[in-house]
Write a structure and sequence with these properties.
The protein is of the alpha/beta class and 276 residues long. The protein has one domain: Alpha-Beta Barrel (TIM Barrel), CATH 3.20.20. It has ten helices and ten strands. The strands form two sheets. An eight-stranded parallel β-sheet has the order 3-4-5-6-7-8-9-10. A two-stranded antiparallel sheet has the order 1-2. The longest helix has 15 residues. It is globular. Bound molecules: nicotinamide-adenine-dinucleotide.
Length: 276
């Protein structure tokens, strides 16, 4: 494969770059995922709330790629926190995907005000023990939520998928993950394409390497050790976003991008977000 793996804390290999499908309607997901698989992506990031697990599953089935060569992530939605609800929601996701197991199952949001993420994660541990998820982890957990989880459960999350891009560099979270052996996966790695890709410093680095701003930003993440899951439904961009393993940024480029941090979120604050 053209994408090198990250070795997760349980030994499972996860491609460092995958394809995100948030906001891709179910009937377009099959085509978008098929395009991505053809371009060489082997990791797909979906979620129950995205409403496109069936489309993703159809593309996976139609691809003819051996199951063991694919890495499928899905996520438990907020309305399904709690032990029994989680087991039921997981069954539904597997059925929609048409799979016997997922590679990674994530708690989508911590919902600290509801206080159910420990119980929810205990159901994840059961799913993991049964071999129906090859790895389990979380998304949008702040270090304080991870501390609570680590104190009350036994399987250290393999991954925390958090918002991260040059305008939100997550230094505290990344340091904490590194200490605990949790891989950092960046969502909205391109800052949702909103403005970030026109920032002069990024455009200048792109010109210097004869690459696109999106490729430069993805390269920055990869060189920091992040897992990335850029999204596009445009075939040329889907292909462009995976052509990032044949060049590298130098120390100066990395520093120039790291200087762009504004600690500015595009998405909700995990401490208060509780949409059901
Ligand atoms: P992203 O940062 O991947 O940006 C995607 C947008 O950037 C596209 O819609 C397009 O407008 C633009 N774009 C993509 N490739 C481009 C290119 N080569 N050139 C120019 N513009 C380009 O944003 P995202 O979709 O929010 O995040 C990626 C994935 O992360 C999602 O699809 C989803 O799988 C995941 N995600 C997870 C959470 C979570 O709570 N866990 C939240 C948001 C997203």
């Amino acid at each position: 494969s053209k994408v090198p793996p990250i070795i997760l804390n349980n030994g499972v290999e996860m491609p460092q770059l995958g394809f995100g499908v948030w906001q891709v309607p179910d009937d377009e997901a099959e085509t978008a995922v098929a395009t991505a698989l053809e371009a060489g992506y082997r990791s797909i990031d979906t979620a129950a709330i995205y409403g496109n697990e069936e489309g993703v599953g159809k593309a996976v089935a139609a691809s003819g790629i051996p199951r063991q060569d694919l890495f499928v992530t899905t996520k438990l939605w907020n309305s399904d926190h709690g032990y029994d609800a989680t087991l039921r929601a997981f069954d539904t996701s597997l059925e929609k995907l048409g799979l016997e197991y997922v590679d990674l199952y994530l708690i989508h949001w911590p919902l600290p005000s509801r206080g159910l993420f420990v119980e929810t994660y205990k159901a994840f541990e059961k799913i993991y023990a049964d071999g129906r998820a090859k790895a389990i982890g979380v998304s949008n957990f702040l270090p304080e939520h991870l501390r609570t989880l680590l104190a009350a459960t036994s399987v250290i999350p393999a991954v925390n998928q958090i918002e991260m891009h040059p305008h939100l560099q997550q230094h505290g979270a990344r340091d904490f993950h590194a200490e605990q052996g949790i891989a950092t996966e960046a969502w909205s790695p391109l800052g949702q394409g909103r403005g970030l890709l026109e920032v002069p410093a990024i455009v200048a680095i792109a010109q210097k390497h004869n690459r696109t701003p999106a490729q430069v930003v993805l390269r920055w993440h990869l060189q920091l050790g992040n897992i990335v899951i850029p999204k596009s439904v445009t075939p040329s961009r889907i292909r462009e976003n995976i052509e990032v393993f044949d060049f590298s940024l130098d120390t100066e480029d990395m520093a120039a991008i790291s200087a762009l941090n504004e600690d500015r979120r595009l998405g909700p604050d995990p401490a208060t977000f509780d949409m059901a």
